[in-house]
Amino acid sequence: MTNYVIEPAQQVSLPVRGSDAVFPVRRIYCIGRNYADHAIEMGHDPDKEPPFFFQKNAENVDTSGEFPYPPQTSDVHFEMEMIVALKSGGVDIREEDALDHVFGYGLGLDMTRRDLQGEAKKMGRPWEIGKAFERSAPMSELVPAIDTGHLDQGRIALQVNGAERQIGDLNQMIWKVPEMIAYLSRFYDIAAGDLIMSGTPAGVGPIERGDVMIGEVEGIGSFTVTVV
Ligand code: MN
After folding, report:
1. Which domain, by its residues, includes 178?
2. Would residue 31 count as lying in a domain?
3. How far is 143 from 145, CA to CA, in rounded Å?
4. What is residue 48's predicted lDDT score, i.e. its pLDDT?
5. Ligand 1 centre from 2 Cα, in Å?
6. C-alpha of residue 50 to centroid of ligand 1, in Å
7. Which residues have their alpha-adjacent CB atom under 5 A from ion ligand 1?
8. 53 C-alpha vs ligand 1 centroid, how far in Å?
9. Distance, CA 158 to ligand 1 centroid (Å)?
10. Where residue 7 falls among pLDDT bands split at 50, 70, 90?
């Protein structure tokens, strides 16, 4: 057994529906502007841009159902997304083989300090300060693909305090799941435990303490996150 000089951090994991076993999280790749109507609402032309990704940290994952309003911001936005969980990986994966690497799917919120992200964009700086902060990735349990099939269409939506705020369809994704896996594997050694947050439809907006967010993806179900 390794003799560490300090206590190593605990492995972050997600529950798996129908199982006592949990899914260990390695990296989290998040795609930007993957739904045309969201790209347009953020002031971009969806037709002219190749995909781009940023990362959150595994330690940012939270399954408690509570999202504490974070420090150093007054404009925190929700982004409802489908999560793709990988059971294996590699490099230069072909699109036609990509879905073989998918363990399952889940629900996630790419919570964003939009004011800090906006400043970073303006200054040409990295986005981490707006994206990869404590508990910035509320997530549901995963559902094995064996139970859901591979999800490439169906409703994706978010309600805040009972009002529909985001609504879209998985079939509106500009870069499909196999394309994202193939693309990422050209730049990174993707591996078992990696998660992909697959982008958000239009309608993103701010939350306040006390708000109750309910996200859903057809074929997976729904999850509830309360802002505290
Ligand atoms: Mn996002």
Report:
1. 13-227
2. yes
3. 6
4. 66
5. 37
6. 16
7. 79, 110, 200
8. 9
9. 13
10. very high
pLDDT in tens, 23-43: 999 999 999 999 988 778 888
Counted domains in the chain? 1
| Spatial CB neighbours of 15, under 8 Å, sequence gap ≥ 6 | 22, 23, 63, 141, 142
| Averaged pLDDT, 115-125 | 96
Indicate which CATH number applies to the domain containing 166.
3.90.850.10
How far apart are the CA of 131 and the centre of ligand 1, in A? 9
Residue 43: its pLDDT value, please?
82
Could you tell me the distance, in angstroms and rounded to a whole number, from the CA of residue 32 to the centre of ligand 1? 6
pLDDT of amino acid 135: 98
Lowest mean pLDDT among 44-48, 156-160, 193-197, 204-208: 44-48
3-state secondary structure 114-134: HHHHHHHHHHCCCCHHHHCCC
User: How far, in Å, is the centroid of ligand 1 from the Cα of 156?
Assistant: 13
Which tokens is 176 given? 């499909």
135 closest CA partner among 207, 54, 71: 71
